[in-house]
Amino acid sequence: MKRRLTNRWRRFTIARFARREFQLPGNVSYVSFTFDDFPRSALLEGGRILEAQGVRGTYFVSFQCLGRDSASGPLASFDDVAAAVQDGHELGCHTFEHLDGTTTSANAFGQSIAANRSALINSGLGSGFDVFAYPLNGPTLAVKRVVGRFFTACWFGGQSFNEGLVDLNLLNAYFLDARSETQMNGLMRTIEMNAERGGWLIIATHDVGERPSKYGCERQRFGAIVARAKSSGARVLPMTTVCRELGIETSDC
After folding, report:
1. Rounded to whole angstroms, how far apart are CA atoms 116 and 147?
2. What was the pLDDT predicted at 67?
């Protein structure tokens, strides 16, 4: 009971405080496809599907974890990260060590963000990250305050699209995983509602394949979702590109 109450209070505080508000114009809709943890299949399978539709995605990477095994399959190697950039995809920050913001101090979380930025610069693949996805269970309020100082836009869950007055420090995302596997009709309606209301739908998953993990998305399903996003009339773009089109000031992290 105490843990549930603590989590409920945490969710309340991160939704209400440390906000960086921005009014979406509502006259154009956007969809961004993103991949947490950057499993290899997210590029080899997911990237191939995106590129076939003429669009690109945002890959959230933790540089210390490159090449490791994970619950969503083998994670990207350095060569995979380089290939994603060469193919026109975007990299986002996921902390250096893939930290849980509910169990890590705000100071340590900020240090991990800085370490991931240094790893990116040293790799020669970029000068900084503009966007961020909270790993695992999301942030505490103290962590959210720190993260918001570094990035143009950050997201964590919600299973809905963003519309009207949004919080750039805690945008909604719609996860494609085992929990949403049977909700295809609901997702398709969400894509259409996003287009009708001029919103920004951030679609997130991990691995993509014929037999995905419980955190990933089946290949044909992912292809159908990308096709529906495009046919909805939304502009399907990586997250930083959306921020630039909307005139949101980019960070230097």
Report:
1. 13
2. 96
